[in-house]
Amino acid sequence: MNNFVIKNAKYVVTVDGQNKVLSDATIVIEDGKISAINPPSAPNYEVFDASNHLIAPGLINTHTHLAMTLLRGWAEGVNLDGFLERVWAAEGAIMDGETSALGTELGAGEALLSGTTTTLDMYLNPAQTHKAAVQVGLRHIAGPILFDFPGLDGLEWQERIAFGEKWPVIHQEIGGPFTPLFYMPHSVYTDSEEHLTEVATLAKKHGARVHLHVSETLAENNQSQAMHKRTPTEVLRDTGILDVPTTYGHGVHLSDSDIDISIKAGASVGHCPGSNLKLGSGIADLKKYQDLGLVTGLGTDGCSSSNDLDMWSVMRMAAHMVALKHSPADVDLVRIVRAATIDGAKAVGLSDRIGSIEIGKEADLIAIDLSALHLTPIHNVLALLVFAAGRSDVSDVWVAGKRVVNSKVLVNVDVKDLKNRIDERMKALEDLK
Question: Which of 34, 162, 237, 428 is 20 to 30 A from residue 387's alpha carbon, by CA?
């Protein structure tokens, strides 16, 4: 039974419909859910004393590849094409199921320590990666990866579809914090229209959602025009993918028509400013997407491009990119915080459960220690979150009411053992350096 009380919170950033920020607040959690906020009296449960702490919803990473933590710093000084060439070679050398799970264990731990409680994770060997992340305590969204060619896992197309048919049962058996079903074709440039139509049929059959890379670069858009005489978004519409809720990874170069199609279809975007800047992919117009009503969350992408899973730096970069593309006056701190929390939850189909601190929601919560000099003084709580706070300030984390980080220590991971296992496995990459 996940029953406890958070007391004396200096601030609670609720991200509710009114974007309330509470002071000197109490939150009651029962059976892993928020049952009361500032009640007249609190039940006699275990107490977390949040004096000099800020409590916020856990951050939601709407596009990442957790296992690629093992390739942090592997492909530097390249654009997307050069990045893929170098990374795919390394993945081909080491990324079997066991190693994918190892990298995901590392990524899940890194995410939780930094205050990210939910990730939309696209990677090979999803049964192994999902099991590893769940054991660490992360709310981990995974799904079958589908592309035309055998790829690093050696699966032919019909084997991918067969695994996709089994995925709902596998997903249920692994358990863990609730996550929706997803299928994950890689992109329009790696999946034919015929195959995308098959994925759409599969997703409809199982009531699942879809996640894939969309318009990450101008080169991708140009390739789509050459191959399909349409934008990637138009291909998704015409193959039936957009008949189910779909989350775009990146969505940097969406035309006005693409945005309109996406909004009408209920699609969303996982905006990855750090990766997009580093690879020179472009600057997505977050303000425009939000103004028009295109649901947009934030993401890190994988560590082989972004080098870390730090959603605090992502929030900061997203804000700076709005200032650069428009003006500093157009940076809406409320919108930036919502993109990292409740809008991310909407993007992955979980906004009825997580993403805000409201009665009835599951307790995916983070505590931020406000004692650091760089968080002193506090004139604007949201500015502190977007521009000053960082992963080192996260002290405690709960997922579905279970404490998974306790005083900056992972509850479910032996970090020394994990690092030893990683060091041993990385010896297999020596010949590729």
Answer: 34
37 and 68 share one domain = no
DSSP assignment of 116-153 equals EEEEEE--SSHHHHHHHHHHHT-EEE---EE-SS-TTT
Q: CA 350, 355, 357: angle at the middle one, nearest 5?
A: 130
Q: Cα 390 to the chain's mean position, in Å?
A: 17
> Residue 158 belongs to what domain range?
59-347
The tokens of 344 are what?
Answer: 């991310």
Cα distance between residue 9 and residue 110, in whole Å: 25
Whether residue 174 is contained in a domain is answered as yes
**Closest to 310 in 3D by CA, of 136, 112, 129:** 112
Provide the 10 A C-beta neighbour count for residue 379.
Answer: 6
- pLDDT confidence tier of residue 431, bands split at 50, 70 and 90: confident
Q: Which two tokens mark 280?
A: 């020179």
Any domain includes 415: no
Picking from 135, 65, 128, 126, the residue whose alpha carbon sits closest to that of residue 98 is 128
